[in-house]
């Protein structure tokens, strides 16, 4: 059982910040479980919090409308306040309308599944998925799925844009290998980063799931900062070396076109 250290919350800045991080971790855990909901016990396991802390924070979040509780099954869901806040945030951050034609075009022209992912801290979050015409598909990635930097093609292309010092800091302690396997060791990530920097696009040669390949290219925001990535996924036979330059070129073209569209579209 963990230590219920957030009894200090509110007494000093550190405790208050810790409580905030814990509450946000619970919101994220519930959000990732939607629409099936999440039990309090599962929420405690997902976040590493004690059951008493979890229950207290869940009730507090529900009181503010950020979570909703269904007493018939005991599960927790995202609340109405998040919907209202999200609809307002969408006016600033939602690029779905602009990105969707680019994602659709990639899927139609290549036959592979195409995606848009967003950079969120040290993670990527999938926002859009468009199916291609090829009947064999990879289902590693879908809307709402998160990967850390250095994992999956979108995560790799963002990792490649870190300078060497920041990349070393991120990889210190070999943080990816334990969960994602030795193919995501610090040395292997650095090797793939070097290849990505040389090509301009990332290649995931079945590193997450054997036989499921992917490629990704970065999209920049108005200020020129990396913010999103376009990617393609499919079965290994569709990503042979002879075809990779063609797919990479199409990804880079659409990523550049979307970057330009973002820069020239008036702010809402």
What does this structure look like?
Keywords: DNA-binding, Transcription, Transcription regulation. GO terms for molecular function: DNA binding; DNA-binding transcription factor activity. This is IclR family transcriptional regulator. It comes from Cnuibacter physcomitrellae. Pfam families: HTH_IclR, IclR_C. It contains ten helices and nine strands. It has helices at residues 13-33, 40-47, 51-63, 80-93, 96-110, 152-159, 164-171, 177-180, 186-199, 244-264; strands spanning 38-39, 67-70, 75-78, 113-120, 123-130, 146-148, 202-205, 212-220, 226-235. The protein folds into two domains: 5-84, Winged helix-like DNA-binding domain superfamily/Winged helix DNA-binding domain (Arc Repressor Mutant, subunit A); 94-264, GAF domain (Beta-Lactamase). By secondary structure, the chain is of the alpha+beta class. It is globular. It has a six-stranded antiparallel beta sheet with strand order 6-5-4-9-8-7, sandwiched between helices. Residues 1-13 have low confidence and may be disordered.
């Amino acid at each position: 059982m963990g230590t219920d250290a957030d009894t200090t919350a509110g007494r000093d800045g550190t405790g208050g910040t810790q409580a905030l991080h814990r509450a946000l971790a619970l919101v994220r855990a519930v959000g990732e479980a939607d629409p099936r909901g999440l039990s309090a016990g599962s929420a405690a396991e997902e976040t590493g919090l004690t059951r008493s802390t979890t229950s207290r924070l869940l009730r507090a979040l529900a009181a503010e409308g950020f979570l909703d509780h269904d007493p018939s099954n005991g599960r927790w869901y995202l609340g109405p306040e998040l919907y209202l806040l999200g609809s307002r945030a969408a006016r600033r951050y939602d690029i779905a309308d602009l990105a969707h034609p680019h994602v659709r075009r990639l899927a139609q022209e290549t036959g592979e599944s195409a995606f848009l992912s967003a950079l969120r801290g040290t993670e990527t979050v999938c926002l859009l998925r468009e199916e291609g015409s090829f009947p064999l598909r990879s289902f590693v990635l879908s809307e709402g799925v998160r990967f850390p930097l250095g994992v999956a093609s979108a995560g790799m292309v963002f990792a490649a844009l870190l300078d060497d010092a920041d990349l070393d800091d991120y990889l210190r302690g070999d943080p990816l290998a334990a969960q994602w396997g030795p193919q995501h060791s610090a040395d292997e990530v650095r090797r793939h980063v070097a290849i990505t920097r040389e090509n301009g696009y990332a290649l995931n040669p079945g590193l997450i799931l054997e036989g499921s390949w992917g490629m990704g290219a970065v999209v920049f925001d108005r200020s020129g900062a990396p913010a999103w990535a376009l990617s393609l996924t499919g079965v290994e036979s569709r990503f042979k070396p002879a075809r990779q330059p063609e797919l990479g070129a199409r990804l880079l073209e659409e990523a550049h076109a979307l970057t330009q569209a973002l820069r020239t579209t008036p702010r809402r």
